[in-house]
Design brief:
The complex is a heterohexamer, with two copies of chain A, two copies of chain B, one copy of chain C and one copy of chain D. By secondary structure, chain C is mainly alpha-helical. Helices cover 80% and strands 0% of the residues of chain C. Chain D is 25% helix and 32% strand. Chain D has helices at 14-19, 103-112, 114-130, and strands at 28-34, 40-41, 46-52, 57-63, 75-83, 86-95. Chain D is α+β, with helices and mostly antiparallel strands. Classes of the chains: A alpha/beta, B mainly alpha, C mainly alpha, D alpha+beta. Bound molecules: protoporphyrin IX containing FE, adenosine-5'-triphosphate (2 copies) and magnesium ion (MG) (2 copies).
Chain lengths: 211, 221, 246, 131, 221, 211
């Protein structure tokens, strides 16, 4: 069974230590919520997990193996969702999704199915520039389903979503975990996911802010 | 490979749908060239003498302008993060994007360059030399420019010095490009110059994707 | 509200009725004009046969100026009254005008070689006409450069209005500065300096170009209107989709 | 406004050239009419002629191909520089005026003397404008 | 007035902290000019003749490149909305921003221009004339460029589009600027040209802030 | 007592009528929530109220006077907060705030006090680029306090705020209204403000969407 863990993680941003001595461990089928006040380092930790940032101290491991040993493999198994929705205004929703699927080179799942899951199948042929904020976010979430990644890293995924879409997201995440996937979510609001771990980030803020 | 082809296809499609890209680059090229007759006076002989130089400078500027936002859109809408997180090597991704970009902006420049030669009174052989040197040279410019574009994405992190380093890197290409055309017009053998141009292009092909990828990683930190 | 909804439909009906007529008139005029120009009109006393380029060049040059004026007027109207149809008229004119400009430049250049001994010189008339081409291109580029079509339309209209200063400059450049290009032969205070046998085919061609422009204008405006309708449907689709999902 | 220095003008008139002192190595263009009877093809491809605006005339020497429309009494623009009062041209362009007519009509006009009259008018206009 | 001064101060401070701008502009200016000795050969006479023109064209392009992002940053981070909503007239705000921008990019160009004159073998009077005409001319360029920058705000291909719009409008300034320098070098009276330059500058000062403000309002709609 | 009202407002965006026949009235000391689904025109109405957009039909009035008669005066009394946080990366939080205060030319209140109110006094000297999403938003909110404006127009003001900051915002708005100010807020979440009016925007959507 896959495991994803970090030990003794510390991160420096703009000359400040954001968190230090942070440990976590996650097993297949589990979801973890990152909580904490503004500036506590939720987004930072997610980018660290994705490999976009390197930790100042500590190490991330996949099945006990440091991910630094196989960064390509790590990138191959994760899907990241950040603050932006990378939906090109001149490509249709389906074209946007198809591109991301082709890029990963993974067996291409059904684009229509993914759109359907988030209630926007009827928008498949509509160019991105006509989509509202919430609709763009749904396209971005549909990308997760197509990616087939086992590790989802999601930064405030429910921004701009209405109730119905938020419910669809909850279901999708639950299904992903049930199928043996993992998810890490940074959030300010209660998502109502069943059986999640919580990581409160303010606990790791160093008392002395300067290194 | 399939992933890289997908990037090229997407970027070409974006350029096509957004339209005008190629047209505008060419328009700038012609406009920038046009400035010189006003600047130095519409003296046909003089224009013919500086024609190659002017054409090259204009091409350089056009390519600089067009490249400036090579990664910008993808950076701003978060696509770049996802590209960097894809299993493909970032160097390959840079190359694919530069390739698509060259097809939509570099190539039209080259196609338009005979027009410049006409406007500037450069003769037929000079024109041929201009096209050939631009063909080799614009690839170099695109590659070096990609490094600059990547650096300016993360310029907040003190990239001033580095981006200043990129501009001078254009100079050798220019010197040999203009030199080739001048040699051809004057009837001298120009192969040495062309070889140098090609050598620079190969060097850029080897180094630039790597440097640009490093700069992009920094920008995404 | 009512105005905006009604006008386009009325316009569509008008366009559908008028365009076949315009097409017919254009075909007749251009055929007659070309025939007269090539076979009936006499050669010039100095240029001999190469004068026949005139029948293509001069109307194209006139149209390049006329289309720009029309485009700027439509753009100005669109800005003042916020009338979508006026925007469409300006938008529809731009590529046609650019094509006429290009034609005037190309035929002028072709004519210049035998006449002057040079394809191209940087005199005020030729340069200002080239700048006109760039104004057209700028209009087209600006119009399509935004995700929001209304923003593009208004920015482009602003440019068109500002650029109108070029028209008198082009027209009078040959009088204000010494140029290689000749002064006006037809549209001059003291009457034409072209022999009637040459003037008549020239004018027929000019009228033919104009009806051609009107024809293309109607067709293109109809297309733009349809595009706008499709866009509106798309937006509705987005909206109803949302409502269904709600 | 004196447009002389401004680069908008394509050519200068002979009057300007004789009245103003252009630096000897400055390339300029002179435009006007080829003076009647001044063309002298002194062998080879070198021609000498005078460009006039009816007030002043400038002698020109040119080696090379002339445009088809080059003829006495016709408009012309020569590019080169002044050397000891002689304009050494290295490019000669023909300048066409605004008159178009069939050959027969022009012959008829010439006979009636009207043609010369028109030429004078035009030349006067050209020189007047430059001042 | 106090509000406008605050804008100038802020923009200057931003330019200073970000570094970049002034250096880049000057570097580009010098580089573009330096190319010509390579392009047309080190013939001192020829260089002197085209010097003023080349210097002017390079200055023009440099100012164009710098102007592109005049309003961009403020537009993207929402500052522009707040500026437009401040009680100050938007025309005044445009003027303040253009002023600050001119101080950080136009002025360095002018300071660097004697260097160009030296490189290009332009004599002392020519150099003086170059500095003077650039002083008047770059203000015009900045003002016209501001209109273009405002019109293209939010456009997909800012840079190239901007140059397509603005370059044709730059031409008169270029013609009279170069004309002045040429006249001075040839020993002709140049006042007529300087007056024209100044007239254009005054015209631009009267019209451009207004046009740019209108375009900005459109962009914010 | 000041009043702010609009009657028969209609607005066209991207060739589509977003709302029509909209009326509202607000008195000194009142707050109004704009509610409605994505794309119903909340942001549009706020921009209209600020004068960034002109209505296609209808009129806005201040104390019965059309605001078109005195646009400068209207701009002088409002403070607008949009989707973006105009925080310059190279200026410190305090410098950013001081600039906006200087721009309005209003008597300059204490920058430190405003930062303190939103719990970021310790970040006063930190350059904008080091601030997290929520911290930037707090700086932007502090700007409102400094502006001294009587009419606040706020577009989803609590985005990215954590609980504590949201509470601070609630207090600040309540205090503003108590002191005789007005506030209009577009929001998707319950803000828990006392005594507010509500304007549901979907009620004004025209049935026929095509122009
Ligand atoms: C690329 C070169 C040329 C360009 C860009 C050009 C441009 C123009 C333009 C813009 C006009 C319209 C002016 C107006 O409406 O008053 C015009 C008219 C005209 N052009 Fe050209 N031209 C070129 C070459 C020539 C040549 C070589 C000739 C032959 C000598 C010529 C003969 C004429 C004539 C006869 C007119 C009509 C004048 C009138 O009565 O309005 N053009 N040209
Ligand atoms: N690019 C950066 N450079 C320097 N410092 C940064 C950068 N991004 C964030 N920081 C700092 O790192 C800390 C953590 O920021 P981060 O964005 O991870 O917080 P967060 O928990 O996601 O906050 P929020 O709830 O506001 O999104 C903040 O104090 C911030 O000031
Ligand atoms: N700049 C624009 N150009 C064209 N149409 C626009 C523009 N901005 C918004 N719209 C359209 O106007 C409508 C109203 O948008 P608005 O942003 O006011 O909605 P909103 O209620 O604020 O939605 P959200 O909850 O997503 O913020 C939407 O349908 C949108 O598509
Ligand atoms: Mg965050
Ligand atoms: Mg909104």
């Amino acid at each position: 069974m896959d495991t994803f863990s970090g030990s003794g993680l510390a991160c420096l941003r703009g000359g400040r230590v954001v968190f230090a001595g942070l440990d976590f461990a996650l097993r297949a089928g589990e979801a973890m919520l990152l909580v904490g006040p503004n500036g506590s380092g939720k987004s930072t930790l997610l980018r660290l997990m994705a490999g976009l940032l390197r930790p100042m101290e500590g190490e991330l491991r996949w099945n006990g193996q440091p991910i630094g040993d196989d960064p390509d493999g790590h990138r191959g198994r994760l899907a990241y969702l950040g603050h932006h929705d990378p939906v090109k205004p001149v490509l249709s929703a389906a074209e946007n999704l198809a591109f991301w699927a082709a890029l990963d080179g993974r067996p291409r799942a059904s684009v229509e199915g993914a759109l359907e899951r988030f209630g926007i199948a009827h928008l498949a042929e509509v160019p991105g520039r006509f989509l509202s904020a919430g609709q763009k976010r749904r396209v971005n979430l549909a990308r997760l389903l197509l990616s087939g990644a086992s590790l989802w890293l999601l930064d405030e995924p429910t921004t701009a979503l209405d109730q119905q879409a938020a419910a669809a997201f909850r279901e999708a995440t639950a299904a992903h975990c049930e199928a043996g996937g993992m998810a890490v979510l940074a959030t300010h609001v209660e998502l109502g996911l069943p059986a999640v771990r919580r990581l409160a980030l303010d606990a790791f803020a160093p008392t002395e802010a300067m290194p | 490979m399939r992933g890289l082809a997908a990037i090229v296809r997407r970027d070409l499609r974006l350029a096509l749908r957004q339209g005008m890209d190629s047209v505008m680059v060419v328009a700038f090229f012609v406009l920038a060239t046009m400035l010189f007759p006003f600047g130095v006076g519409p003296d046909a002989n003089l224009l013919a003498r500086i024609g190659a130089g002017v054409g090259w400078v204009a091409a350089l500027l056009a390519s600089l302008l067009a490249l400036e936002r090579l990664f910008q859109a993808d950076y701003e809408d978060g696509s770049l993060e996802l590209l960097a997180l894809s299993p493909l090597p970032l160097e390959g991704i840079v190359l694919a994007k530069v390739g698509a970009h060259w097809l939509t902006t570099g190539l039209p420049l080259i196609v338009a360059s005979p027009l410049i030669a006409l406007l500037m009174n450069v003769g037929a052989e000079g024109c041929g030399a201009l096209v050939l040197t631009l063909l080799i040279g614009t690839t170099t410019l695109s590659l070096i420019g990609a490094v600059g574009a990547a650096l300016t994405l993360g310029a907040r992190r003190g990239g001033v010095l580095l981006s200043l380093l990129v501009l001078p890197l254009y100079i050798p290409t220019l010197i040999f490009g203009v030199g080739t055309v001048a040699a051809v017009i004057d009837g001298f053998p120009a192969w040495a110059n062309v070889m140098m141009l090609a050598a620079i292009a190969v060097g850029a092909l080897a180094l630039c994707p790597w440097a640009a990828a490093a700069a992009l990683r920094q920008a995404l930190e | 509200m009512l105005k905006i909804v009604l006008q386009p439909d009325a316009f569509s009906r008008l366009g559908a009725k008028a365009s076949p007529w315009l097409a017919g008139i254009t075909a007749v005029l251009l055929t007659a004009g070309v025939f007269l120009a090539l076979f009936v009109s006499p050669p010039d006393f100095r240029q001999s046969e190469s004068v026949r380029i005139m029948y293509v060049h001069v109307p194209a040059a006139w149209m390049s100026l006329f289309c720009y004026t029309f485009m700027a007027a439509a753009g100005g109207a669109a800005l003042v009254w916020r009338a979508p149809l006026a925007h469409m008229a300006a938008e529809a004119t731009a590529p046609v005008g650019a094509a006429f400009t290009l034609l005037a430049l190309a035929t002028g250049s072709l004519w210049g070689k035998p006449m002057w001994g040079a394809w191209w010189v940087w005199d005020a008339r030729l340069t200002s006409e080239l700048i006109l081409l760039f104004l057209y291109l700028g209009f087209i580029a600006l119009n399509t450069a935004f995700d929001d079509p209304t923003r593009g339309a208004r920015a482009a209209a602003t440019l068109a209005v500002v650029g109108i200063v070029m028209v008198p400059i082009i027209k009078y450049s040959v009088d204000w500065w010494s140029t290689l290009h000749q002064p006006a032969s037809v549209l001059r205070m003291s009457g034409p300096t072209i022999a009637a046998e040459m003037l008549v085919p020239l004018l027929i061609m000019a009228v033919g170009y104009t009806t051609f422009f009107l024809y293309v204008l109607l067709i293109r405006m109809a297309t733009l209107l349809n595009n706008a309708r499709i866009r509106a449907l798309r937006q509705r689709q987005v909206r109803t989709g949302w409502e269904a999902a709600r | 406004l004196n447009a002389l220095e401004s680069g908008i003008v394509f050519f200068h008139s002979p009057s300007e050239v004789t009245e103003k002192a252009f630096p000897p190595d400055r390339r300029i263009r002179i435009g006007g009419l080829v003076e009647q009877g001044s063309v002298n093809r002194s062998g080879g491809s070198t021609v000498a002629f005078k460009i006039t605006d009816m007030a002043h005339a400038v002698p020109v020497r040119y080696t090379g191909l002339l445009p088809d429309l080059f003829a006495e009494g016709q408009g012309v623009v020569a590019e080169g520089f002044l050397k000891g009062g002689v304009f050494m041209a290295d490019e000669v362009l023909a300048k066409h005026d605004e008159n178009y007519m069939p050959p027969e009509a022009s012959a008829a006009l010439k006979e009636s003397g009207f043609w010369q009259h028109m030429k004078d008018q035009q030349a006067n206009k050209a020189s007047g404008k430059a001042k």
